[in-house]
Structure prediction request, 432 residues.
Amino acid sequence: MKNNALIIILCGIILLLAAALAGTLLYLKNQPPVARGVLPIVEIKPLESDSARWGINFAQEYSTFLLTKSNNTPTTYGGALPSSKLEKDARLVKLFSGYGFSIDYNEERGHGNALTDVRATKRLNEKTPGTCYSCKSSDNPKLWTEMGMAEYDKTPFKTLGKRITESIGCANCHEAGTMNLVVTNPALEEALKKQDKDWRKFTRQEMRTVVCANCHDEYYFAGEGKYLTLPWEKGTRIENIADYYDEIAFSDWQHPDSKTQMIKMQHPEYELYSADSTHYKAGVACADCHMPYTRNGAAKFSSHDIQSPLLAPEVSCGSCHTDVSYVTARVKIIQDIVWETQSNTEDALVAAIEAIAAADNEQSDQTLLEEARQLHRQAQLRWDFIAAENSMGFHNPQEALRILAAATNLARQAELKAVKASVSQELSINHQ
Ligand code: HEC
Ligand code: HEC
Ligand code: HEC
Ligand code: HEC
Prediction:
């Protein structure tokens, strides 16, 4: 009997202890996550432009973000070592003749240098509008709210510069407080609206790409006020963009040799990537490759050291691909092929420009000559869509090669038309 009572008491104690433990575990598990993580240390004001202030609360993101300033490792076609594209490829001087990009055109580098680099470019002059700061500073979201984008854009670069001190930072991508990813650039907001798209309804995975489209897309300055505009009204494919520019008869400059009305393309990473690339269709986001999850002890966070994924392929590609050396070797093959093709297109463009310049005289058939100029415009803006895109075709290899093939074809047609323009006149003269 005594033994039985002891067992019952012991069992009771064990049950009580077990219940207490289960209760404690359940209590801990149901605590809101914030109680387990690091509590915010400072309050961050809406649109706070000083990234260091956000950094107090988010040390891992901030310390990796700072690395974008000092990165300087080159890769075969990218990386962040400052270098002149014009010195590497003299044909660019001919293709951009008469325009700022024939004077100064450098390989782009990390976000931490955006402000220094835009201020250092020799492309700046007295007429440069404030619009050129649009993708360079975390002061912008606040300035756009205070001034409105129209006023911001038409303020001269120098004057606006007095109000800008920060390079790209947290406020360009995040909403303070919630830390949600946001569209901060009014030009992107407007371009999406014109396509009946509301980014507030996008999924989190979509935002991990769209947040980069705040800056990584083709744009132009509309009208006297140099209003920042994305040419997406007809769609984001190169043909849609070309049609749009033709319809509004827009040009960035006139080529002095061929007298063609030209368009300069600007870093259309978002457009090329989202044009049904394999990765895009598979739901992969820019941040998956450029901001891979990283571990620091128990903490897992997105690396904010945004750079060439080829400099850290184990984390950038390895989260999805088991054979990292295979996929990085594929990048090399793809980029080499795209570069070879792009280089051939450049030869065709140079030939077109020379043929048009040679045919530019009163004896030539002016209608054919004008058609040749139109073909030159179409060819070069297509080539530039790929050349100004920064992945050397990797973001969408099929689309890159499709566009370059079209560009080469158009450039050779331009050359032929120009030759015809002079020959047809000679022939008619000979027949007289
Ligand atoms: C599947 C992985 C992947 C995705 C997704 C991806 N990229 Fe890339 N990106 C790369 C690779 C690889 C390169 C080539 C880097 C090199 O040549 O050093 C690159 C190059 C770049 C570069 C030039 C980097 C340099 O070092 O010069 C920029 C800018 C860029 N990507 C932006 C974007 C943006 C914006 C998006 C989304 C619209 C995106 N990428 C989506 C893999 C990716
Ligand atoms: C170029 C855009 C960009 C900038 C600039 C940027 N972030 Fe992020 N950040 C992202 C993206 C993309 C994610 C991933 C979000 C997701 O998966 O929902 C992210 C995630 C985060 C997260 C969530 C946890 C994590 O690591 O995934 C925190 C916190 C954060 N960022 C803090 C910061 C801070 C602090 C700064 C400034 C020092 C900053 N970010 C600058 C794009 C940016
Ligand atoms: C506020 C504008 C802005 C946003 C938002 C932005 N970028 Fe950039 N990005 C730039 C500019 C400008 C440069 C070139 C800076 C320079 O050359 O000084 C750049 C450069 C880069 C580079 C080249 C870095 C290197 O080391 O070569 C990569 C890669 C890149 N961005 C990827 C991204 C990705 C991915 C996102 C989204 C998560 C993103 N960017 C969002 C403006 C932006
Ligand atoms: C978030 C996941 C993810 C990441 C990160 C990722 N990939 Fe992929 N990759 C895919 C998927 C999904 C496919 C589609 C084919 C498949 O199912 O394997 C793919 C396909 C490819 C292909 C074949 C492309 C084709 O057109 O057939 C190459 C090459 C490739 N990836 C290279 C890379 C490289 C290089 C990186 C790192 C810079 C990378 N990927 C990062 C998911 C990813």
